[in-house]
Automatic annotation (TrEMBL):
The keyword Cell cycle does not apply. InterPro entries: RutC-like_sf (IPR035959), YjgF/YER057c/UK114 (IPR006175). It comes from the Bacteria. It comes from Pseudooceanicola algae. Keywords: Plasmid. SUPFAM superfamilies: YjgF-like. This is Uncharacterized protein.
Length: 130
């Protein structure tokens, strides 16, 4: 069974898509859409570390809605708009993974930009369902 994930405690998607999808049954998975640092009130924090922390908080909500958690994360794909944002992103990622027994695979790419110039980080994950 495939189920769309749109938690009510984070900002809604920008268009007709879900924040994540759970594929349940057997070896189930959760895939998230790329998360940008948009708070429920519409604000965008400044700086890569603050933006990444909000992205990871949104991912926590999506994983919870699916019945998973950061313990099930298999892969992180992250995007920053410049090398100067790498350290802030990595600090937030390392804090998010601090209590995780296994470390997921991770990719970090530098891209030219996102839908709004204020965004400097976008993060997506793939996780296993328990």
């Amino acid at each position: 069974m495939i189920r769309s994930l749109v938690p009510g405690d984070i900002a809604p998607p920008f268009a007709r898509y879900a924040h994540g999808v759970a594929c349940e049954g057997g070896s189930g998975f959760v895939l998230t859409s790329g998360q940008l640092a948009l708070a429920p009130d519409g604000s965008i924090p400044e700086g890569a570390e603050s933006q990444a922390a909000l992205c990871f908080a949104n991912i926590d909500s999506i994983l919870k809605e699916a019945g998973s958690s950061r313990d099930g994360v298999l892969r992180i794909n992250a995007f920053v708009t410049g090398r100067e944002h790498m350290a802030g992103y990595m600090a937030a990622r390392d804090a998010w993974l601090a209590d995780i027994a296994h470390l997921p695979a991770s990719t970090l790419m530098i891209v030219s930009g996102f839908t709004r110039a204020e965004f400097v980080v976008e993060i997506e994950v793939m996780a296993a369902l328990p």
